[in-house]
From TrEMBL:
Coiled-coil stretches: none
Pfam (any one): DUF454
A GO cellular component annotation in the UniProt record: plasma membrane
UniProt cross-references to InterPro entries, sorted A to Z: DUF454
Keywords, sorted A to Z: Membrane, Transmembrane, Transmembrane helix
Record protein name field: DUF454 domain-containing protein
Taxonomic placement: Bacteria, Pseudomonadati, Pseudomonadota, Alphaproteobacteria, Sphingomonadales
Length: 117
């Protein structure tokens, strides 16, 4: 039962990651990292395919081995956070507009504390 739940969660994370390739505010790589985590507990074959993927594999391995995020990934995340915060400030009324801005600041600060290896 537990294995089936991890498999379903991995497939869902992979689907959301695939959507993120086309939707600018949905992150792709974090969902693929989550999918690899779930597949490690449910399907070694799917995990191997994902960690061996030419685009996502290096990011997943870098995160697993060192908790690292590439400089390019940090810049992309910061740009997405900035866009989201500006959109919230433009479309929402205070104090609600400050919640996405605070989340962007906290998330962005955390991302920049990760190593880059």
């Amino acid at each position: 039962m537990r294995r089936a739940l991890y498999l379903a969660a991995g497939l869902l994370a992979m689907a959301l990651g695939a959507l993120g390739a086309f939707l600018p505010l949905l992150p792709t790589v974090p969902f693929m990292i989550l999918a690899a985590f779930c597949f490690a507990r449910s399907s070694p074959a799917l995990e191997a395919r994902l960690t061996g993927h030419p685009i996502f594999g290096p990011h997943i391995r870098r995160w697993r081995d060192h908790g690292a995020i590439s400089r390019r990934g940090k810049k992309a995340a910061t740009a997405a956070f900035l866009f989201s915060a500006l959109l919230a400030l433009a479309l929402m009324r205070p104090p609600w507009s400050l919640l996405p801005t605070a989340a962007a600041l906290i998330g962005g600060a955390w991302i920049w504390t990760r190593p880059e290896r």
